[in-house]
Design a protein that fits this description.
Elements (H helix, E strand, L loop, with lengths): L1 H19 L4 H14 L7 H26 L5 H23 L3 H20 L13 H18 L4 H10 L4 H26 L16 H22 L5 H19 L1
Helix pairs in contact: 1-2, 1-3, 1-9, 2-3, 3-8, 3-9, 4-6, 4-8, 5-10, 7-8
């Protein structure tokens, strides 16, 4: 039953990754927190375990989402390359930051972030394209900030990267596609950092590699890889306005649950 939950969660995360340019972490982390709590995992590490596992799953989600977007010629690879330099450093720093925060406090921080993302998506708040794409130092600096925040929240960074790129005058489809590509270095650097930080932690459950829980990783990865391609195709065919609002309602409920 537990593995079935991870399979369904992976399918949902994959569609979100391809459709909105997010890694699905805003869904994965809360569900894993609830699941780990129900299984009696130690409260001091279960949030960190959820974040680390979420980042590891996003590696698989991103690969298939990026392939589909690249096939349609929507990824701006030069922008990705310079942002990725900052993302790698920022994700490592973000993992270190998260490790210093107590589990219950980290849940509240994630809850606040979930509500902010919900407001942005539900009201369809978008920055106006008021500036051009920054130079190489600007893209790298933006990558550091996005990578740092994404590693703390266990996300692929799409909720931060897409608005930034739209503000910098990229068409929305290119912003989503490039954001999907940026999710890969965020996830890889963040997951490896969480593995190292949790290595041999005495309170970890069996089948864990540091702060990555392997049963959840395998279950989510199996379905997310397929459904990410499906979501990417939908992004080029459908207007996701209604889906965004439904997703926003879900995030509000998740955020409030973490805060109360």
């Amino acid at each position: 039953m537990e593995f079935l939950l991870y399979l369904v969660l992976g399918a949902c995360a994959g569609v979100l990754a391809g459709l909105f340019g997010v890694g699905g972490g805003m869904i994965i982390v809360p569900v894993l927190v609830f699941s780990f709590t129900a299984h009696g995992f130690d409260v001091g590490i279960l949030t960190h375990l959820a974040v680390g596992t979420s980042l590891a799953t996003i590696i698989f989600t991103s690969v298939n989402s990026v392939r589909e977007h690249h096939r349609k010629g929507a990824v701006r690879w030069p922008i990705f390359a310079w942002m990725a330099l900052g993302i790698l450093a920022g994700a490592g720093l973000g993992s270190l930051t998260a490790a210093t925060i107590q589990g219950p406090v980290l849940q509240k921080i994630i809850g606040v972030f979930a509500i902010l993302v919900a407001v942005q998506m539900g009201l369809d708040l978008k920055p106006k394209a008021s500036r051009g794409v920054p130079g190489k130092p600007g893209l790298t600096a933006a990558g550091v900030v996005i990578g740092w925040a994404s590693a703390i929240f266990g996300i692929g960074g799409g909720s931060l990267t897409v608005p930034f790129l739209v503000w910098r005058s990229l068409p929305i489809q290119q912003a989503v596609a490039t954001s999907s590509a940026c999710g890969l270095p965020i996830a890889a650097a963040g997951a490896l950092s969480f593995m190292a930080l949790g290595w041999n932690h005495e309170q970890l459950p069996p089948y864990s590699l540091g702060f990555v829980y392997l049963p959840a990783l395998v279950g989510i990865a199996v379905t997310s890889m397929f459904f990410a391609r499906f979501g990417a195709r939908l992004a080029h065919r459908l207007s996701p306005r209604l889906l965004k609002r439904l997703f926003a309602l879900l995030l509000v409920s998740v955020g409030l649950n973490f805060l109360i």
